[in-house]
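go over this record:
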Amino acid sequence: MSDALDRIVAGNRVYAQRTSEHDPNTFVEMGRGQAPEILWIGCADSRVPETTICHCKPGDIFVHRNIANCVHADDLNVAAVVEYAVAHLKVKKVVICGHTKCGGANASLADADLGVTLNTWLHPVRELRRKHKAELEQLADDDARATRVAELNVQQGIEVVKQHPTVRQAVRDRGLTVHGLIYDIPAGQLRLLDDTRATGGSGLWTPANH
């Protein structure tokens, strides 16, 4: 079996060759710039590659991914991505996508020590679990509870994104919209969340993120 790095380098050669054979101008056009219509904030999970699961091409989706697709009000990383995508690329839609079988959501069902960094990162998701304890206890099993936590986390992320000054201006000036999705890994299908209202309060973007 080949080394993992060797495989991806070889795979890139196949991709480049096949793409050029199909359309010799593809890479020339991409070299001229990008104009994606969607900003996708998703989970770093290797099973949820947004371009693949949405049957899109490179250049179609501007992407930020992290553990459990969290959007924290004091996170300069996601704030920079949002500002660049909305203010400079002029995306038309912002999508926050969670998924079933999410390790971060599952880990947030309890308070096991995952190490300082992950404990801090998942703290807001664990707070959602505590806030919705009664609802979650009514669900059949941990799989269902983790999926519900993933939904709640997406809804909370939407409310945080909506408070970003650049997003607020784009919503007002040009009709930018923000949406929540859940990707069902065993089914291979995306589901639009019907209710994208706040489930537990909005996080105002801090001055450090302006």
The chain is about 45% helix and 15% strand.
